[in-house]
Amino acid sequence: MVATPARTLSPPSDDKRWRQVEVRMRRLGHRPDGLIEVLHTVQELFGFLDDSALAFVSQSLSVPPSKVYGVATFYSHFMLKPQGEHTCVVCTGTACYINGAGALLAKLKERLGLEAGGTTADGKLSLLQARCLGACSMAPAVVVDGEVHGRVTPSSIAVLVEAL
Ligand code: FES
Fold this sequence. Notes:
By secondary structure, the protein is of the alpha+beta class. Helices cover 43% and strands 11% of the residues. It is built from 7 helices and 4 strands. A 4-stranded mixed β-sheet has the order 2-1-3-4, sandwiched between helices. Residues 91, 93-96, 132-136, 139, 141 line the site of FE2/S2 (inorganic) cluster (FES).
């Protein structure tokens, strides 16, 4: 039997969230039938699927780009661009949940009237939630415009989003 060569594809950037995506793909054995699940993971972590993300997933799973685009555009759940000008991803994975992620979401709802998955009426901010951002030692963690913030409190998240 011939061993499968190790994958040496580079993710679109050095953003740590790509490691989470790579772990997911590895767990799925880089199988083409893991496409929807991997796209879900990318969207959960980044909030949307851009061209570089779709190309990376296509190459990593050996799925033709046309099929990846086809799936990404067929399901209304997938977004090909950020909804708001800024994105804030609140992690609600176990470590973050135990350490107060719920209070962060409650604070954002109180301050902005925003639920996870929503965008402010002025289009400035989209709020997303993820199951684990790979920063559990800094729980609760949030990612604002691609920058990871750890040990976030309700008052610090209010300052973070108001600065936007
Ligand atoms: S559970 Fe939140 S970063 Fe892992």
